[in-house]
User: Fold LacI family transcriptional regulator from Chryseosolibacter histidini.
Amino acid sequence: MKSPKDITIYDIAKALDISPATVSRGLKDHPGIRKDTKKKILEAARQMGYQHNTFARNLRIKKTNTIGVIIPRLNSYFMSTVIAGMEKIANERGYMLLISQTQESAKKEIASVNTMFNSRVDGLLVSLAFDTENIEHFDAMLKKEIPIIFFDRVAEHTKCTSIVINNIKAGYDATMHLIDQGCKRIAYVGGSLKRNVYADRLKGYKQAHAERGVAIDPALTIINTLSEQAGSEAAQQIMQMNPLPDGIFTANDTSAVAIIRELKFAGISVPEQIAVVGFNNDPISWVIEPNLTTIHYPGQEMGEIAATTLINTINNLPAANLNTLVLRHSLIIRQSSQRKK
Amino acid sequence: MKSPKDITIYDIAKALDISPATVSRGLKDHPGIRKDTKKKILEAARQMGYQHNTFARNLRIKKTNTIGVIIPRLNSYFMSTVIAGMEKIANERGYMLLISQTQESAKKEIASVNTMFNSRVDGLLVSLAFDTENIEHFDAMLKKEIPIIFFDRVAEHTKCTSIVINNIKAGYDATMHLIDQGCKRIAYVGGSLKRNVYADRLKGYKQAHAERGVAIDPALTIINTLSEQAGSEAAQQIMQMNPLPDGIFTANDTSAVAIIRELKFAGISVPEQIAVVGFNNDPISWVIEPNLTTIHYPGQEMGEIAATTLINTINNLPAANLNTLVLRHSLIIRQSSQRKK
DNA sequence: ATTCACCTTGCAACCGATTGCATTTTTATT
DNA sequence: AATAAAAATGCAATCGGTTGCAAGGTGAAT
Assistant:
């Protein structure tokens, strides 16, 4: 049952009666090796079925060509799009992706960081969990100068680049749109305020109100997990309010869709009685009826940029020392919020 | 700019004035080391900030505790759910996931397999690309006894386990349901017939017809990429048919939703004029109106089982020598297909 | 006191590739 | 042909753990 032993550079060296050092150099196109020697080596390697040993190399080089990715959850449209973008770039540049989900738990996040650390990833791409309080668990890596890039759910850190959209502006755009549609009482449904994305969107929501001189009823702000279930519950809660809100801005589309379903089921018309704006531009947003007004969030692009920036940083290429990188978002207006003509 | 050097077992050995061998053994709870020695070692390791070096270990052990995952695309609900399941199990059992997308291209699939091979993954979880013709590119790994498990889009191989649902039965169930709803001309929209999933669903579609003695018009079978765009085009094609079909069974929900949208837009009523059944039970299936009848496909579970089986195989644990593992599917009947009361 | 068995620990080879420096070979120059 | 310069190759140490086997230490039994 023993499988044939792996071919090493020593085997090739012996077969060709040269030294392993020459084989090693020949294999990687070192300038100081004669052309025909190289050809001989390559040929022998090919026909002996040589596969290089990544560990041995990594052990010497102290580089893994692997990027760690730590995310809350993989199975949302947004996140899978981000990962797809990262994978594309990583693949092109010869890197692999090591992916780990925190399930929104800070504890798991810490464990993931440690595993990644032990696996000696060359860099880290991180989107923080709901309940992460501080980012000390990244210190060990940063001390070793391993670059870390935060995306979407970011943290402030002088040594780390953050890739985001302008969530304040996005929240502002969404809310202002609702106000422009004649909404007077707008509810906000978002996730944990520990996370920039939700705190910022709420900030934008407030700014828009302030700018128009509209007072905000604090009872209209709902913080939950933004799951489908949470969305339904939020809808129930909203429908108990008196007076009823006439607009809802919610920080993801899953939640928005769940809310619209509940509202419709309860006989409340959208957008006439309550206008709704979501966030992310998930495919469901143009399937729900009425089609959902939402913020377009360029996931694939964010993934690509995050990966590119990280790989450039790893290799000391330019464009590396930015602190924050802000991608463009846009408000996509569909029927769920349109009350004027 | 030099970061402090990594702590090795040699550093610990020196600090404690014992041998590196003892440190190595102490660190992993080897039976032949005295309790207090172990405690001393652990304590020193902790406070010196020791992190084990995975490469050095892998180089010796020839094991990476890493599983390669090769999939067509990451950004579908089904696939991200599968990966979420795999990641959960892998994480619990101390494995990492190395993920690679083929973008449905056989060429990229071959490249991915080679990269995984070089990375010395302990095993492979694979769902085949659309246009993969044969599976010879896995031979090198199989020759080295590296276990490979296919899931969803599988290939026959005596040495590999396949994890699937009964696609023939699922196709049969879907079609039979349409027939029972009074459909006489049912169109089938699916992906490449090189892939078992689509070939089998078509087979089930035919079986159902045969069983009821209904003839099939070959013009009603459409093969495409199952993308949203392809769905819209398929809908256009179907609407040109004369006579119009009165039922459509399509092999994913993305496609089904795109088709329903086109039909509705063209003023064709679903399910009255054309009943539609999809596949996968994506979230969009219960958002589209009418809600989509579909086949529930247990993605998370499939991911968990695939990962569990692979890890067991890697470690020579039982339940490893199955050839095929069939998960339960179920037909979820919603409005898009219900024409009777 | 001696012997033996067992428990702990250490020695040293090994895993496979990389690389600074020394050495040999080739080429160019006179 | 002799010699210097340049090019090609080899030597050997190194990366950080792991592990078979040997050696040292302990206590019990005789």
